[in-house]
Amino acid sequence: MLNNVNSPADIKSLNLDELNRLCSELREYIIECCSTNPGHLGSSLGAVELAVALHKVFDTPVDKIVWDVGHQAYAHKILTGRREEFRKIRTIDGPSGFPKMSESPYDSFGTGHSSTSISATLGMAIADEKLGIKANHIAVIGDGAMTGGLAFEGLNNAGAMKSNILVILNDNQISIDTNTGAMHNYLIKFTTSRRYNSIKKNVWQKLGESKIRDAVQSITKGTKRLFLKNNDNFSLFDSMGFRYFGPVNGNDMAQLIPLLERMKNVDGPKLLHIMTVKGKGYAPAEAAPTIWHAPGKFNPESGERVKDSSKISKYQEVFGTTITELALKNSRIVGITPAMLSGSSLNIMQKALPDRVFDVGIAEEHAVTFSAGLAAEGIIPVCNIYSSFMQRAYDNVIHDVALQKLKVVFCLDRGGIVGEDGATHHGVFDMAAFRPIPNLAIVSPYNELELRNMLYSAINLDSYPATIIRYPRGRGEGVDWKEQEFTEIEYGKGRLISGDPNQSNDAAVLSIGPVGNVCARAVAKAVESGAKVAHYDMRFIKPIDIEILEQVCKSTRHIITVEDGAIAGGLHGAVAEYIADNGLGCRLTGLGIGDEFVPHGTPSELYHLCRIDEESILKAIVL
Question: Is 201 a catalytic site residue?
Answer without folding.
Answer: no
